[in-house]
Amino acid sequence: MTDLLALTAELVDVPSVSRDEGALADLVEQRLRACRWLVVDRLGDNVVARTELDRPLRLLVVGHLDTVPADGNERARIEADVLWGLGAADMKGGLAVALDLAETCPEPAVDVSYVFYAREEIAAAESGLAELFELRPDLLEGDVALLGEPTGGVLEAGCQGTMRLRVVLHGERSHTARPWMGRNAIHRLGRLLGAVEQLPERRPVLAGCEYREALQAVGVEGGVAANVVPDRAELVLNHRFAPDRTAAEAEAHLRTWLGPFLEPADSMEVVDVAAAAPPSLDHPLLAAL
Amino acid sequence: MTDLLALTAELVDVPSVSRDEGALADLVEQRLRACRWLVVDRLGDNVVARTELDRPLRLLVVGHLDTVPADGNERARIEADVLWGLGAADMKGGLAVALDLAETCPEPAVDVSYVFYAREEIAAAESGLAELFELRPDLLEGDVALLGEPTGGVLEAGCQGTMRLRVVLHGERSHTARPWMGRNAIHRLGRLLGAVEQLPERRPVLAGCEYREALQAVGVEGGVAANVVPDRAELVLNHRFAPDRTAAEAEAHLRTWLGPFLEPADSMEVVDVAAAAPPSLDHPLLAAL
User: Is B269 exposed, middle or buried (0-12, 13-18, 19+ CB in 10 A)?
Assistant: First the structure.
């Protein structure tokens, strides 16, 4: 049986900071190409290996090759059954499992695609996964995907949606020596922030999974000059919503809650949104896990 | 008797947008030099003319030469007894009065210094008055100063102090998907802004003048990234305080009021302060007005 701790240590010892994953992609590609039951593709620093057994279902086992920058922890160090080192948990331990499965399961019960991709730890737009979706979406087709990110050994099913909203509050400029002649837009933020903080928390349970929604201010900006009552204040919010709501429903929910703090001249717009993914635990493949 | 409306119109017709007051300074200087009872100094675009009568008291009559940029109102236009034009009220009307006094009062009851200065409408650091204080403070010595800024014909005595404070609130970063693992510093602003808005208003009456204090947020900033619970938020406040308080007393007052919304790790510092000036209406020269 494979020593997964040793294999993880071997992967940790190959540096693979984001945008510099070439050496690790080489190692993974070389090992996968040695398995005659796998069809291997390499695109940039992304490597995809697939079984082609004509099974009715296909499972994707997915992991990213990169790590954050080193901090004196470049080399793996094993103490008893604990391994230390850059990227050991996130996610070279997961890569070791995926690699071992690929190498030791020539005839899995379902078809399997092993996806090793680059640049997860930086901006979403740079992700190797996005590169694959663009260049070879067929390589990412499947029924269920397992990502080996660290979760403390717990299966995390589905994911929440995320939405970024920009709220602009208006006021009226005046001199700070005579503020009663104007209206302070930054002061208006106070009540809005109170409402943001007090959004009743939803924790829907879907297929046995409890989701915990959240609404957080992630940016605030306002001010004209040191002696001017500001007529504009901007608040950026990030909302995480459970998969029992569409993005439109989540947005409507926020508009209902925050609406009383907005006036006709104010605005609230969605600037970025990613839909939630349901847990789908009744899917035969997931149900089997 | 001088036609002050016509003289104001003449001054309006000489363009003098901030930093471009040369032509108007020339005009004023030339007229003042024609008065043999005045000692005239010119420094840059500032002109100061003084009587030297060895009177026990000295009055300063002060006004700025510059205007804000034009907006189709460059030329003076008189309709009946109303004059329209760029800078007519602020403050070429006042300049006309000062110029006329200088030209028609060779033997005033007190010595008088007529101060015409540049660059009032932009930053305080650029003011011609600051230039005079630096180069020839003796030209600004006196017992009472009258500034001809528009006040609707009302004498405004003394002035409030102004103080700028920077408040920094701290929190703890976390991922917005798990905000309960951190603490949002922007959310903490909500209660602080409520307190700022609800500072009990003081309207002390000094020597018959009512002062109306004010506290206004003039700047706000915070945010790390779209998916990060921010651990820092900054609020800049401007406080206007009456002359019955020193700057230190005004600051202590704010610290008492806002203190309950700050924690040990937070900070609140005065970044800029100008003391208040008492009305001094019992001064013999002011009392005579």
Answer: exposed
